[in-house]
């Protein structure tokens, strides 16, 4: 099939993206969730979160290259597949995502009044459930230890698959839906 040659996801590094941004030849799309974008994002990026990703919202011009990014590159790969499914033939994403951008020392736009990061929210909720399950298991009934075990298994699954159901659930809360504060 010829589609594999015309629909290959291209990858660029942070240095190349910085050069393309200076030349204004990039349409930069942040596919993270609104709360993540509100907290910190690459200047001039447009938010189209993966959970509400609609390829029709991605600006298409002949003069610019569409570049997607997320935290690590996993969600931008999924968004790229949606663009390919919608008929895009060239899609590029930032290798290593926001993590690589920051590691290269390039600027980000930070909002100190944004909600805490989704990862911290997950840690707080999961930690609270483990402590609650352990305390209830020790002082009320050993059956409550199942709660701690369930949360631990969920965290293992999230780490192995790089998908977090709790994070996706928390992202749907109203205060996490704001892209600016």
Ends apart, CA distance between termini: 47 Å
Q: What pattern of helices and strands is seen along the backbone?
A: HEHEHEEEHEHEHHH
Tally of individual domains? 2
Radius of gyration, rounded? 19 Å
From the helix content, strand content and strand pairing, which structural class follows?
alpha/beta
Q: For the report, how would you describe the main beta sheet?
A: 5 strands, parallel
Q: Give the low-pLDDT segments.
A: 1-5
Strand order of the largest sheet: 1-6-5-2-4
Count the DSSP helices: 8
Instruction: Estimate the global geometry from the Cα principal axes.
Output: elongated
Q: Please write the CATH class name of the largest domain.
A: Alpha Beta
Number of strands: 7
**Strand coverage percent:** 5-15%
Helix content: 40-55%
CATH-level-4 superfamily name of the largest domain: Rhodanese-like domain
**Overall pLDDT metric:** 90
